[in-house]
Amino acid sequence: MHSTSCHFKGVKLERVMIFIDGSNFYHGLKENNIRTNINFQKFCDKLCGEKRLIQTHYYNVPLIQSIDPKNYQSQQRFFDMLRKTPYLTLHLGRFAKRNQKFKCPNPSCGENLSEIVIKCPKCLKEENFKLPPFYVEKGIDVNIATDMLSNAFDNTYDTAILVSADGDFVPVVNEVKRLRRRVKNAYFPQSPPTFLSQNCDRPLISLNKDYIKECLLPKHF
User: Fold this and answer.
1) What class has domain 14-93+139-213?
2) For 147-194, how does the pLDDT look when each residue is reduced to its tens digit (9 = 90+)?
3) Helix, strand or coil for residue 182?
4) Cα separation, 1 vs 37, whole angstroms
5) Domain with CATH 3.40.50.1010 in the chain
6) In whole angstroms, what is the distance from residue 71 CA to residue 67 CA?
7) Which whole number is the average pLDDT over 116-130?
8) Beta bridge partners of residue 25, listed in sequence order
9) Residue pair 2/45 in contact by the 8 Å Cβ criterion
């Protein structure tokens, strides 16, 4: 029986909604030397078990094509695969450009330009101001938190499974639990446990190699 079935032997099944922090999940796989080509239908079915899977929400940020064209194309193929996964909704954030602050090579100068002029005028060279920009993910954490809360308010699930290790989600986890919903954490085991896992309901879901290996696509995918 597929996990999306409504009843099992006449008993109403617990409703589950899965929330996957895509970047956090990807880097967790890499850090634990696990292949990243996941069959997300199998993965979500395994997370859900014999409970009723209402929906999976997957969150990620598209790479910038002009900066990383090769990986951009690979990521787009991955997104296309996700869009074909039953009961899965793909949510995309964006990258926001940030400029780096000037920092003098002399650690005693700090970042105050007026002090640098006095202490270390030789550092005020044009090349020191041409620091490359960096990019930060936007619209991921807030969307996960909003969707977890709104669906809890709307009574669309009994249990949320949050696939992440980000402790910033603890406030929303506590609010969802206050609404009498359970929040289980699927995470890559660490010692000591993460702040997020310590605040979620038991049992936790340990994403170790044995757990993940049944959800991998063939290597040529």
Assistant:
1) alpha beta
2) 999 999 999 999 999 999 999 999 999 999 999 999 999 999 876 789
3) strand
4) 25
5) 14-93+139-213
6) 9
7) 54
8) none
9) yes
Bridge partners, residue 136, by sequence: 96
Q: What is the pTM of this model?
A: 0.80
In the block, which residue shows the tokens 């619209």?
139
CA 18 → CA 90, 123, 196, distances in Å? 12, 51, 16
Q: Which amino acid is at 214?
A: E
Q: Which two tokens stand for residue 119?
A: 């202490």
Do 91 and 138 contact (CB within 8 A), yes or no?
Answer: no
Q: Is 47 exposed, middle or buried (0-12, 13-18, 19+ CB in 10 A)?
A: buried
In this model, does residue 5 exceed pLDDT 60?
no
Neighbouring residues of 118: CB distance < 8 A, sequence distance ≥ 6: none
The two three-digit tokens of residue 8, written as one number: 């099992």
Taking residues 125-135, report their average pLDDT.
Answer: 57
* Cα(190)–Cα(198) distance, integer angstroms: 11
What is the predicted pLDDT for the residue at 197?
Answer: 94
Token readout for 166 is: 């980000």
Tokens of 36: 């990243």
User: C-alpha distances in angstroms, 48 versus 136, 145, 154?
Assistant: 32, 20, 20
% of the chain exceeding 90 in pLDDT: 62
Rounded to whole angstroms, the Cα distance separating 211 from 28 reads 14
Q: What angle do CA 90, 12, 161 make, to 5 degrees?
A: 35
